[in-house]
Amino acid sequence: MKLAVLGGSFNPLHLGHLFLADAVLSELHYDRVILVPAYRSPFKLAAAGMENSARDRLEMTAASIADDPRLTVDDCEIRREGVSYAVDTIADIIRRYAPDEKPGLIIGDDLAADFPQWNKSDEILAMADIIIARRLHSDTVLNIPYPCTHITNDVMEISSGMVREKIAAGAAWRYLVPAAVRAVIESRGLYGLNPRPTESPAQSLILRVEAAARENLSLERFLHSRNTALMARDLCRRFPAYKLDPELGYLAGMAHDLGKQLSEKELIKLAKSDGRRILPLEKEKPSLLHGRASAVLLKERFNVHNEAVLEAAALHTLGGKNMGPLAKIVYIADKMEVSREKVDPAVRKLVYTGNDLDKIFVMALEQTISWLRAKKLKLSQDSINLLEKMRRSSG
Ligand SMILES: [Fe+2]
Ligand SMILES: [Fe+2]
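# fe (ii) ion complex -> structure
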């Protein structure tokens, strides 16, 4: 897999960013562009305070790539906090994605001349291929004193600052950003706009579940839920034969850990109401009930009655007999999403490229069981039985 990284504040992400990512994919034949919203940019004079908008910027970026499987959003800079240096991000991306060759790092020609002054620019050059995109100079070829590749993208006259100013001034701005970004700006009332409720009930359900996850979970857990949701949505699209609605994948991924912050008492109470018995292992370690509790919350608080979504949330912890495809997908996404540190690169690659869902599921299950064994934690007999059954059936 050939990866390129496009970092930025994305405040907000606009069409110029996506146009640029597309130009790199088309012109240089990369397989995937990873968009990395900065927590705090080392460049911007106004960087102080930009961390306050990190979640909004991340959500807009995530929303904007929804219908393009060649794009990924990675929240490593936001999880890392502090000043977002490219050198740390590139090292982190290489470690987690294990790309086949050096990743590309896309920078605008407005920043290119100062690149040698970036933090540890020599290390960046050793790890990544620098791709210089046109931002200001549509016809001049810059003389750059380090190895790099130029792309010949057209310059789009849009900047995030321009979008923000137009919103604040009540001028036209809506079609400078992807529709999904516009929806986030409008529904949240960002940049001084009056919030407006979204119109589609499915979208507003997702926004409500997201809001609950944001409020009730730690930042780390919320970001994990978002990553799980994005990966589940991707996987639903990658396996069209199962006819899964990618938005339901997103919903199930976003909701799967809703119960995570509850007390043991609350977990037991909620899990009991799903009508299934509490397993001995669950009794011993009630935190294992958080998946079942999440499913009950989805049903009772959010009025979700889609059995596949409820099953996916309920079974993501221990797995279960006869899991449907959505439950397998959420199980995989929960264990393999981009911020999970201990994923074997070969397994991660299979998650992105494999064409047999059951095979990916077996690998996710095997990896989880071996993590638990390494930590000397108790295994559920159900998980072991399930793995044996899946191994038999997938040959
Ligand atoms: Fe979980
Ligand atoms: Fe999880």
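# post-check
Residues 256-257, 290-291, 316-317, 334 surround fe (ii) ion (ligand 1) (CB under 6 Å).
The chain has two domains: 3-164, 202-394.
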